[in-house]
């Protein structure tokens, strides 16, 4: 019996050491869950969720401090993805927040701009180009439509305009009706059967 | 079963599934190609090919002649656009496109002057044998040649992506398999020579050793016309590389992978390209236009369009300038019949309904199909899928449409991706055989565009994330730099103040030894209370400034006019008011 106890204790100690080493060598930097949540967020960095950017919101969700329905730019699709990942029930966007259906883009009225650089400082993705007392402009491809630049502008020269989707970005709608096709049925089938 | 049907011809290999359709090719295929009269206005969308939209090289008000370059290719995958007739550029603005969503896009609007003057053609190369494949590709790019079978992929790019010298067999696609369409059929009947000469040129351009011309068995006159020219070339020039292969009329025999399977027995697997098998497949119309471009220097400004269906008075083929409004083309075919309610671009299987007929004919327009309700089978409302598996039996791409449908409907697009959604050629066979009348292909198109859209969003989000991270990093770095600079400044002030204190001591005492002791005291004082040291240095600076100012004032008083003395005091009173 002593032998059995010793063996069991020995195994326990061995595994304890192994686990301890594994914890040392395979330590994960940061929070992997927060990173995975961050990947699902639209990265507009708009702060509408109440956190300063998508990453802080993802971290809050990973800690269980924030709800999944606080991202207006992501919309329903993002909430569904988050619900899937976090294994919680889907819920519609928080009532406090406005549903955002069209994607927008900031446009600076270059006639009105006085070159105060306030919008440049506000932009979370460095999408505004300009210098002090020089006209500013938005780099369209980089703009996430977060609207953070609108409020600081002292002369109110920034407009959010809907993004014009090109032909490339066309999305076929979910179908409603069938396509008419005159047919005699599958190649080898008898006509009577196919026409039935 | 469908497979049995697809292997009827000796020496040919079938493909999986397929459909035996009613082809409705007559009467358009029996009438000669008509010339479309000139119209007043042509609209040329800058994006009528696969790839990047072309960049206009003309401006509003320019006079252009037929064949003149209007827009140059922007990217490697892009195509040039040329003037279809002579006239004045009226506008470059968004105009309606032939598009399933009825979208608009930037287009060049050309007001014709009716004279149809030709521009200087490109340098004709009747001796194209002396030209290298690179030069020939450059010419095809210059002439705006794209695949006219429907995909409108730039031909020069297609040739370039084929391994250099790695093409053994050129396949010419004359198996126009969709109902109603007969533009390639008429072209083969009426001008077989440019097609076969073009095939010879393409053999040279890609270094291939033989050319198989696949033509469906429901086009006997086209086969005859091509065979006559092939026989003549064999006699006169000992040309033995060209060979016609008659393929059974099973829809979609004209699909690239289906035709290659039928002609060569090679089944090109998913994620592989036909060029990986030393093959290249080109449409007959594309080859004929390539020949015109190289040998005659003619740019692509017109194409043959089938106008068909019960909705037009006189179904026929017309040679139409690219950019002609579709309504005018219908007019040239006798106009609409009573009760027409639908106009499709393309055939009944793969075409799409147009929102309006004011949109222009583009390089992809092979057919305009006008239909009355009596011309099509009634469309009963879709019923639930009963999992009869007829769709998967008929699918020429060996897919499982019912699974794809299941996941597309449930919006589980990732799962439909796993079932190889992107191998779907959207031929419409599954929708046609479905006993529940489910519009399967529409679900697949929807799923494809949703997946693309999600991918674009993801890429954009990733980009924004990187920029946001970089932005934060930069803010941090700047903050750190500012703090470092501030610390350095503080240290400098401290040092300067110590020095000043030491100097003051030295001035007062005049004894170095004493100064030493005092400076030591000063330094201990400054370390004891940095604030007071800083304020002391500021005081010292102020005193110096005052002294300097006083000196300057004295100097001014001495040199300037009497009232000049008041200027500084005026300034000092004005300044605070000005700055606040």
Describe the structure.
- Chain A is α+β, with helices and mostly antiparallel strands.
- In chain A, 33% of the residues lie in helices and 9% in strands.
- Chain A has six helices and five strands, in the order H-H-H-H-E-H-E-E-E-E-H.
- Chain B has 580 residues and is an alpha/beta fold.
- Chain B folds into two domains: 28-345, NADH-ubiquinone oxidoreductase 51kDa subunit (Rossmann fold), CATH 3.40.50; 452-540.
- Chain B contains 17 helices and 18 strands.
- Chain B has helices at 2-5, 133-142, 155-161, 183-190, 192-206, 220-237, 256-264, 284-296, 326-332, 390-394, 401-409, 413-418, 429-433, 440-509, 512-528, 530-559, 566-579; strands at 19-21, 34-35, 41-45, 55-56, 63-64, 69-72, 81-82, 87-96, 104-112, 169-174, 210-216, 242-247, 279-283, 302-308, 316-321, 342-345, 352-353, 367-371.
- A six-stranded mixed beta sheet of chain B has the order 2-15-14-18-16-17, with helices on both faces. In chain B, strands 3-9-8-5 form a four-stranded antiparallel beta sheet, with no helix packed on it. Chain B has a four-stranded parallel beta sheet with strand order 12-11-10-13, sandwiched between helices.
- In chain B, helix 2 runs antiparallel to helix 3, helix 5 crosses helix 8 (284-296) and helix 15 (512-528) crosses helix 16.
- Chain B is elongated and about 120 Å long.
- The interface between A and B is large, with 39 and 64 residues.
């Amino acid at each position: 019996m002593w032998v059995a106890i010793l063996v069991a204790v020995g195994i326990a100690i061995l595994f304890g050491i192994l686990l301890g080493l594994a914890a040392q060598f395979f330590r994960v930097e940061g929070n992997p869950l927060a990173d995975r949540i961050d990947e699902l967020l639209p990265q507009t960095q708009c702060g509408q969720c109440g956190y300063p950017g998508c990453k802080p919101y993802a971290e809050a969700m990973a800690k269980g401090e924030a709800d999944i329905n606080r991202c207006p730019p992501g919309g329903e699709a993002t909430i569904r993805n988050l619900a899937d990942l976090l294994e919680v029930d889907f819920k519609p966007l928080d009532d406090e927040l406005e549903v955002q259906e069209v994607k927008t883009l900031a446009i600076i009225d270059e006639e009105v701009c006085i070159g105060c650089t306030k919008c440049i400082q506000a932009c979370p993705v460095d999408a505004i180009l300009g210098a002090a007392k020089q006209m500013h402009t938005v780099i369209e491809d980089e703009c996430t439509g977060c609207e953070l630049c609108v409020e600081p502008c002292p002369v109110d020269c920034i407009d959010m305009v809907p993004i014009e989707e090109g032909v490339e970005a066309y999305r076929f709608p979910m179908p409603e009706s069938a396509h008419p096709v005159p047919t005699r049925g599958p190649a080898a089938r008898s006509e009577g059967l196919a026409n039935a | 079963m469908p497979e049995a049907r697809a292997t009827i011809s000796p020496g040919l290999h079938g493909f999986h599934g397929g459909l035996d359709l009613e082809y409705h090719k007559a009467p358009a295929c029996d009438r000669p190609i008509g010339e479309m009269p000139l119209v007043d206005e042509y609209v040329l969308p800058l994006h009528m090919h696969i790839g990047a939209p072309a960049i206009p090289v003309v401006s509003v008000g320019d006079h252009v002649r037929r064949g003149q370059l209007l827009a140059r290719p922007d990217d490697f995958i892009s195509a040039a656009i040329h003037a279809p007739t002579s006239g004045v550029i009226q506008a470059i603005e968004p105009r309606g496109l032939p598009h399933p969503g009825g979208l608009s896009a930037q287009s060049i609007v050309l007001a014709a002057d009716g004279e149809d003057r030709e521009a200087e053609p490109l340098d004709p190369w009747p001796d194209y044998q002396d030209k290298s494949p690179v030069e020939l590709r450059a010419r095809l790019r210059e002439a705006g040649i794209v695949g006219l079978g429907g995909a409108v992929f730039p031909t020069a790019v297609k040739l370039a992506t084929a391994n250099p010298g790695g093409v053994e067999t050129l396949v010419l696609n004359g198996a126009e398999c969709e109902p109603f369409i007969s533009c390639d059929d008429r072209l083969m009947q009426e001008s077989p020579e440019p097609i076969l000469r073009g095939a010879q040129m393409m053999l040279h351009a890609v270094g291939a050793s033989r050319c198989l011309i696949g033509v469906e068995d429901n086009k006997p006159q086209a086969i005859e016309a091509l065979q006559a020219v092939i026989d003549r070339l064999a006699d006169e020039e000992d040309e033995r590389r060209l060979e016609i292969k008659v393929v059974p009329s099973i829809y979609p025999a004209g699909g690239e992978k289906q035709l290659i399977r039928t002609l060569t027995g090679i089944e090109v697997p998913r994620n592989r390209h036909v060029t990986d098998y030393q093959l290249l497949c080109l449409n007959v119309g594309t080859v004929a236009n390539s020949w015109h471009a190289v040998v005659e220097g003619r740019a692509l400004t017109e194409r043959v369009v089938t106008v068909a269906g019960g909705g037009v008075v006189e179904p026929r083929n017309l040679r139409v300038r690219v950019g002609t409004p579709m309504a005018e083309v219908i007019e040239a075919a006798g106009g609409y019949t009573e009760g027409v309610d639908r106009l499709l671009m393309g055939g009944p299987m793969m075409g799409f309904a147009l929102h309006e007929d004011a949109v222009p004919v583009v390089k992809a327009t092979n057919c305009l199909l006008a239909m009355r309700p009596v011309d099509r089978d009634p469309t009963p409302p879709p019923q639930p899928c009963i999992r009869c598996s007829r769709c998967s039996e008929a699918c020429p791409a060996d897919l499982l449409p019912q699974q794809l449908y299941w996941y597309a409907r449930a919006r589980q697009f990732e799962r439909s991706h796993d079932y190889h959604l992107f191998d779907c050629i959207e031929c419409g066979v599954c929708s046609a055989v479905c006993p529940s009348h489910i519009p399967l292909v529409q679900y697949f198109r929807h799923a494809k565009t949703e997946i693309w859209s999600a991918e674009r969003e993801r890429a954009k989000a990733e980009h924004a994330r990187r920029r946001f991270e970089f932005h934060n990093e930069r803010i941090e770095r700047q903050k750190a730099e500012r703090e470092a600079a501030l610390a350095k400044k503080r240290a400098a002030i401290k040092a300067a103040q110590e020095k000043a204190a030491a100097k003051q001591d030295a001035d007062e005492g005049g004894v170095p030894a004493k100064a030493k002791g005092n400076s030591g005291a000063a330094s201990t004082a400054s370390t004891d209370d940095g604030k007071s040291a800083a304020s002391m240095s500021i005081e010292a600076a102020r005193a110096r400034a005052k002294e300097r100012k006083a000196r300057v004032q004295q100097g001014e008083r001495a040199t300037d006019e009497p009232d000049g003395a008041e200027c500084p005091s005026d300034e000092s009173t004005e300044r605070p008011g000005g700055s606040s």
